[in-house]
Design a protein that fits this description.
Elements (H helix, E strand, L loop, with lengths): L6 H21 L21 H9 L1 H8 L7 E6 L5 H14 L7 E6 L5 H10 L4 E5 L13 H13 L8 H12 L12 E4 L5 E2 L7 H7 L4 E3 L2 E3 L8 H11 L10 H4 L10 E3 L4 E4 H4 L2 H13 L1 H4 L4 H12 L5 E3 L5 E3 L2 E3 L4 H6 L18 H7 L13 H22 L1 H40 L1
Parallel strand pairs: 1-2, 1-4, 2-3, 6-10
Antiparallel strand pairs: 4-9, 5-11, 6-9, 7-8, 11-12
This protein binds guanosine-5'-triphosphate and magnesium ion.
Protein name: Nucleotide-diphospho-sugar transferase
GO molecular function, one term: transferase activity
Organism: Aspergillus granulosus
């Protein structure tokens, strides 16, 4: 007769439960119910967390109340193919209904091929400002002469085998390089000061009753975002080496009071892969055209990582915003509810959602998901996290403690031969019992089948 499940097996079971609790608690952090503080408002806020949140929830709205009628020199910008026409039509309609129908900013469309009449007719009829269509000069959408195209092709083949997203794609690499270093130099954008990037298929869920461009200008903001997350490391293995080289060669461009803490957990030795998701951006074209940014882009471009790896424009823009700008010049838009597959930003504050007639489900908000970098952004700006959001929830701490206690027990079992034997006997006993249960179940099932057949005859 085998022994009953021994105390050692209990440790193993508790360890498994603790691990599950820990993982569950990390993947579903509690949803905050208040609007987080905006970093730019932090210093004027009081010392209690609650009063800070109240002030911040209306920062952009207070701005809206006091800035009627002023306009910025700004445009929407979309890079698209002719085949993207219906997806961009959907996105334009949302931007127009939620914002631009009242403001009539222009819209610049860029393509590496000529736009066809169909694309121009459909998009042109939706934009309430002037729609402009530009072709990208071939030298901005092709290999620079220092790139070894054979090496680039081999990398694409390897990444295809490794199933790295877009790793096989040549056009995706041209696109990322173009968005990183060229779009703001297109002649159609020369006369504008600010841009708002819109991609095909994106959605907006709240009214935008204020003018984000004017907000950017009045507050000296240069780069803004809605969603932030971690980059897929295998697409950028040497990007940070390039950044470190640039910091070494051009210390004059690295500003005091930057957001290095958002990008690195060890004061710049390594990159933590956090970036602002660049399919939504409102930013300063003048900043992108500045010597600092151009030196940065050229330093990276020379290393060939857009083609020898698969550097995305999101980490490239984000690292620049993090190092070449003061942290106060960055902005997080809590009020802009936004979707790009597969993530949503939906403001947690119910009052704000009512005020802005939002249609998004706050339980789908990505901000406090463990893949989001927003909590790092808040910490960088010394902004308290909303209640209920901590790096490690109580459940996770509990899970950790039990986990470590159990690892110690498992270790004790492993080095004790008698305990090992007991665990093996008990596991075998459990296995045999489960087999008996299974056989009994099969027999019952067969009996039930036989009975059913008898009844139907
Ligand atoms: N003209 C042109 N535009 C492109 C090309 N590839 C991508 N784009 C545009 O570049 C932007 C980014 O491309 P996406 O395919 O959306 O890339 P992504 O956002 O990383 O990936 P998804 O998750 O698939 O949206 C979009 O505005 C596309 O329309 C291309 O070959 N030519
Ligand atoms: Mg996209």
């Amino acid at each position: 007769m085998p022994p009953p499940p021994g105390k050692y097996v209990r440790y193993l079971i508790i360890a498994a439960v603790a691990t599950t609790l820990f993982l569950l608690s990390r993947s579903s952090l509690p949803l905050p119910t208040t609007t987080p503080v905006s970093p730019s408002n932090e210093h004027s806020a009081g010392s209690s967390g609650q009063s800070e949140k109240k002030q911040s929830s209306s920062e952009v709205m207070r701005f809206a109340a006091t800035h009627h009628g002023s306009r910025a020199n700004a445009t929407f910008v979309t890079l698209a193919r002719n085949t993207d026409v219906w997806e961009i039509a959907q996105a334009i309609r949302q931007v127009e209904d939620r914002f631009n129908g009242n403001f009539h900013y222009d819209w610049v469309f860029l393509n590496d091929k000529p736009f066809d009449d169909n694309f121009k007719r459909i998009t042109g009829s939706l934009v309430s400002g002037t729609a402009r269509y530009g072709e990208i000069p071939p030298e901005h959408w092709s290999y620079p002469d220092w790139i070894d195209q054979d090496r680039a092709r081999k990398v694409r083949e390897e990444m295809k085998e490794q199933k790295i997203i877009y790793g096989h794609s040549e056009s995706y690499r041209h696109m990322c390089r173009y968005e990183s270093g060229f779009f703001f130099r297109h002649p159609l954008l020369q006369d504008y000061e600010y841009y708002w990037r819109v991609e095909p298929g994106v959605e907006l869920f709240c009214d935008i009753t204020y003018d984000p461009f004017v907000f950017m200008k009045e507050n000296d903001k240069k780069y803004s975002f809605v969603i932030s997350m971690y980059e897929y490391e295998r697409t950028i293995p040497t990007l940070w080496d390039g950044v470190k080289q640039f910091m070494n060669d051009h210390p004059e461009h690295i500003v005091e009071g930057n957001s290095m803490r958002f990008l690195s957990d060890d004061k710049g030795k390594t990159y933590n892969n956090c970036h602002f998701w660049s399919n939504f951006e409102i930013g300063s074209l003048d900043w992108l055209r500045s010597k600092a940014y151009m030196d940065y882009f050229e330093a990276l471009d020379r290393r060939g990582g857009f083609y020898y790896e698969r550097w995305g424009d999101a980490p490239v823009h984000s690292i620049a915003a993090g190092l070449l700008l003061k942290k106060e010049q960055l902005h997080f838009w809590d009020e802009i509810a936004y979707y790009h597959t597969p993530f949503t930003h939906c403001p947690p504050d119910e009052q704000l959602r009512k005020d802005l007639r939002c249609s998004c489900d706050p339980s789908g908000n990505f901000d406090w998901n463990s893949h989001s970098c927003l909590s790092r952004y808040f910490k960088t700006n010394e902004v308290p996290l909303p209640p209920g959001v901590e790096e490690y929830s109580w459940l996770a701490i509990f899970g950790f403690v039990i986990l470590f206690a159990n690892i110690a027990c498992i270790f004790a079992v492993a080095i004790n031969s008698r305990a090992r034997a007991e665990v093996l006997i008990t596991v075998r006993h459990l296995y045999l019992q489960s087999q008996t249960f299974w056989e009994r179940y099969q027999e019952e099932k067969r009996e039930w089948e036989r009975e059913r057949l008898r009844m139907t005859r």
